[in-house]
Amino acid sequence: MNRLLTIEDLRVTYRSSRGEVPAVRGVSLALDAGRTLGIAGESGSGKSTIASAVLRLHPRSARIEGRVEVCGQDVNALSWGALRRMRWSDAAMVFQGAMHSLNPVLTIGDQVAEPVLVHRPTTTRGAAAHRVAELLEMVGLAAEHAHSYPHMLSGGQKQRVMIAMALACDPRLLVADEPTTALDVKVQAQIMRVLQNLAEELGLGLLLISHDLAVLSSVCDEVVVMHGGIVIEQGPGAELFANAQHPYTRALAGAFPTIGDPDSRYRPQGVGDDPASFEDPAAIREFLSRCAHDDGGCLVHRPEFARFALRDAPDCLRATELGILPADSETETAI
Questions:
Q1: Is the pLDDT of residue 106 over 90?
Q2: Do 34 and 130 share a domain, yes or no?
């Protein structure tokens, strides 16, 4: 087993004019080579903060606690030079919003070649051009696009360029943060298929972040569901979507229409209300303020957050009553 990413008890807090804002609160994850791990959740759940932690891209206002290891290296302990060498070569990132990530006055070829020339300074211009053509074809684009400018490409083509750029230095770990943002459904499926195929062919570890639980479940080996900066459920992708245990996961899955069911697009249910404000620590609870099944007893019986063994015993007092767990199941907390 080749472990590429290990995250242990990660906690990220941002300092602001209103005080400290806890964005991630005690998250632990692991990803091996050739495997795909998805992180799902609403905006503000802490997904992109975890992605930034992998390559240490947080602003200076962030306080990071816990351990993040990429290819055996403690990311937070690396010097600036070592961190620079780790980026692109060991781990790379596909950012959301490709339309705003490409330089409009440089050709696609120049932009894809840049990380090769910077991180492999002995590479000649000719070798870099050959590598650009190879990368573009790898993501399903014609090599001739190297001479194009960003405005000449569609949104889906630009996103493929971003993927090609991330693969320029043969990283072993690829982090894709909302790679299908602002793309139509058909193009989203194409981009996801490109990422999935690349992970399989190149043996990459792929960390895929999205708010769309249905998409992640169809692509990822394992899916983590986050709410309020914590992991509330985790399990095999297809199983988690088909048999969600936590009420929040069920609500998140219900926010999207079911493919093949023509009536489902008219009745997606979704999640009620907005997430609690991170600026008010007292308001951050497990999902109580938004749960349709809470009758007030959850807060009385559990004033503090208690984490259950994921999948075996979800973080829900009414799991048995709701049919999530059988009546003879035992639930042990680990606070």
A1: yes
A2: no
Is residue 312 a part of any domain in this protein?
no
The set of residues, in sequence order, having a beta carbon less than 8 Å from that of 90 and lying 6+ positions away, is 70, 71, 73, 171, 172, 173
Structure tokens at 261: 């069911």
Taking the C-alpha atoms of residue 319 and residue 4, their distance in angstroms, rounded to an integer, is: 34
Residues 81 and 154 in one domain: no
Using the 8-state DSSP alphabet, how is residue 242 labeled? H
189 is a domain residue: yes
In this structure, the answer to whether residues 27 and 42 fall within a common structural domain is: yes
Which residues are CB-contacts of 144 (< 8 A; sequence separation ≥ 6)? none
Identify the band that residue 151 occupies on the pLDDT scale cut at 50, 70 and 90: very high
Closest CA to 240 of 42, 37, 25: 37
Give the DSSP H or E segment for 209: strand 205-210
Q: Are residues 170 and 39 part of one domain?
A: yes
Distance from C-alpha of 54 to C-alpha of 50, rounded to nearest angstrom: 7
List, for residues 154-204, the tens digit of each pLDDT value.
988 999 999 999 999 999 999 999 988 777 888 888 889 999 999 999 999
Residue 56: name the closest of 114, 104, 10 by CA: 10
Say how far apart CA 319 and CA 326 lie, in whole Å: 8
Q: Say what the pTM is.
A: 0.82
Distances 278 to 49, 61, 178, 335 between C-alpha atoms, Å: 13, 16, 22, 21
pLDDT tens digits along 26-44? 999 999 999 999 999 888 8
State the residue range of the domain holding 117: 108-163
